[in-house]
Amino acid sequence: MKTLIAYFTMGGRTKKTAEAIASALTNYEVSYFPVELTGKFIEKIKMLDKFENKDFSAIETELNTLDAASYDLIIFGMPTYGNKPPQVFNEIVARMGNLSGKRAVVFNTARFTGGKVLDYMKAKVEEAGAQVIDQS
Question: For 34-53, how does the pLDDT look when each residue is reduced to its tens digit (9 = 90+)?
Fold first, then answer.
C-alpha cells in the first residue's frame, strides 16, 4: 500500500514520530513530504510567523510537487502551537486537493492539548474528502 507521511517539524519531535510510524509500516511503501524548519531558533520562529500569515513562498516549490493521487493512505503529522496545528497544515491539505477515496490518519505532537487539535485536523482532512481511520 502506497503511503505518504506529510509532516511539519520545528524541533524534531514530529519528525521522530513520523519515522517511528513509518518503521512500523513494514508492508507499506512509504514516502515523506517533510516541512522541516532548520537553523537558529529565531530563524525558525520568523519562518513559522510567515507561515501563520499564509506566506509559504519559502516552500512553494515543494508545495507545487505535492500530489496525493498515487497514495492509498495519507498520514498527517503536526505539532501543536497555541491549541492548533500550524497554518502549514491547512496549506498542505489544500494543495492535495480532492482526497475522495483516500484513507487518512492524523497525529500531533503536543504535551498537553492534543485532543482538540486532532479533532480539528480530522475535520479538515474529512472536508477534503478523505476517510480518517485513526488519530493519535
Answer: 999 989 999 999 999 999 99
Whichever domain contains 99, its CATH number is 3.40.50.360
Question: What's the residue count for the chain?
Answer: 136
Helix or strand (DSSP H, E) at 33: strand 29-36
Contacts of 69 (CB under 8 A, 6+ apart): none
Number of domains in the chain: 1
Sorted by sequence, the CB contacts under 8 Å of residue 103 that are 6+ apart come out as 72, 73, 74, 130, 131, 132, 133
Q: What element of type H or E holds 128?
A: none
pLDDT band at 31 (very low <50, low <70, confident <90, very high): very high
| pLDDT-based confidence at residue 113 (cuts at 50, 70, 90) | low
For residue 25 the three cell numbers come to 509500516
